[in-house]
Amino acid sequence: MAAITLLAWAMSPLASAQQAPLQDKPFAEHKVVLQLSDGDAKKQALVLSVASNLLKFYDPDKVAVEVVTFGPGIDLLTSASSMRKQVESLIAQGVRFDICLNTVDTIERETGKRPDIMPQATPVQVGVGQILFLTENGYTLVRP
Q1: How many alpha carbons lie under 13 Å from residue 61 in its C-beta half-sphere?
Q2: Is 9 within 8 Å of 122 (Cβ atoms)?
Q3: Does the chain have fewer CB atoms within 10 Å around its N or its C terminus?
Q4: Which residues contact 120 (CB under 8 A, 6 or more apart)?
Q5: What is the dihedral of CA 111, 114, 115, 116, to 10 degrees?
Q6: Distance between CA 52 and CA 124 in Å, rounded?
Q7: CA 91-69-116 angle, 5° bins
Q8: Global pTM?
Q9: For residue 44, with 0-12 CB atoms within 10 Å meaning exposed, 13-18 middle and 19 or more buried, which class applies?
Q10: Are 129 and 123 in contact (CB under 8 A)?
Q11: Distance between CA atoms of residues 106 and 103, nearest Å
């Protein structure tokens, strides 16, 4: 049901002007947003490790984890990412990965080509705006 709601949201004309809706995790006792604004592979691996460790430490139903990517951090969510399998595994376990459309638009303006983004990534207009939205709604910001 949550996937259908997210798909309907993503297809709506207002989707590009809003934050992604909060995750549908009614039993989550902990809510964490991980910021990724760095293109360094070690930093990206660290973010994935933190997300994985949170799922292991808490029951996946008891923790909501959202990774917000912007700037060079969106490299993690490109189809050519060397960490794609890890990202897909975390998505399958309930972690949401957001991608900043402002960054995508900037890359397209500068290179003439839109980055090839993983279809599972959740588009948000402003990555930092999504972080602010989440922290205002009970999420703890962690910047590994």
Answers
A1: 2
A2: no
A3: N
A4: 87, 88, 91, 97
A5: -140
A6: 23
A7: 75
A8: 0.86
A9: buried
A10: no
A11: 5
CA 69 to CA 37: how far, in whole Å? 6
pLDDT in tens, 47-84: 999 999 999 999 999 999 999 999 999 999 999 999 99
pLDDT digits (tens, 9 = 90+) for 98-144: 999 999 999 999 999 999 999 999 999 999 999 999 999 999 999 99
Do residues 69 and 37 touch, judged by C-beta distance below 8 A? yes
* Distance separating alpha carbons of residues 98 and 69, to the nearest angstrom: 6
3-state secondary structure of 34: strand
Structure tokens at 21: 């809706």
65 forms beta bridges with 32
